[in-house]
Request: fold
Amino acid sequence: MALITTDRITGDEISESERQVKASQIVSYAGSIYGIGALATTFYLVGRNTHNDRARETGILTAEATIDSIIVGGALKGITQRARPLDGRERSEFFDGGSSFPSGHSIQAWSAAAVIANEYHDRKLVQVAAYGIASAVSVARFTQHKHYLSDVLVGSAAGYGIGHYVYHTHHRDPSITQSRWPAIVPQYSRNARQYGVGLTWNF
Reply:
């Protein structure tokens, strides 16, 4: 709430500086759908070609987290309809047909970073790189005059939560034995006169 109430002031202050806009635009590409999509595809293809299950899963979960973040971000943008910093007199206003809140790049970058950091929890450098790049993307969206501080903060927090949720919900435990064929087990209860079939497939 504190950031929202001061967003117009901080947004107007940063808009007076143009020197960092070009660099910010370049950094922002890392959080775009194209940047995250390329990252997820690279992880998946490298993992598949080198038989690296962790890299392959990272690619799949990164793609899933990105899709989830696009859905959540799109819904929030549609609900809040906040005007962007360069939208003139109506800038920073909610319910005014804008698409500023939250930052889409931030939510996508942080959802991917959370997945990667969790997958490579045993490698501190990977974690630092993942969260460092996501932080840089969030800051760049503000310095590029595309979003307010509250936009990037909420987007970052939402993306972090989505990435953690996707990882902890769909992470494959390597201790579980994989099988090419499903295990089919008949199930029945004479007393209840219930009959059925259970299907288990770890793939």
User: Anything to note?
Assistant: The longest helix spans residues 53-80.
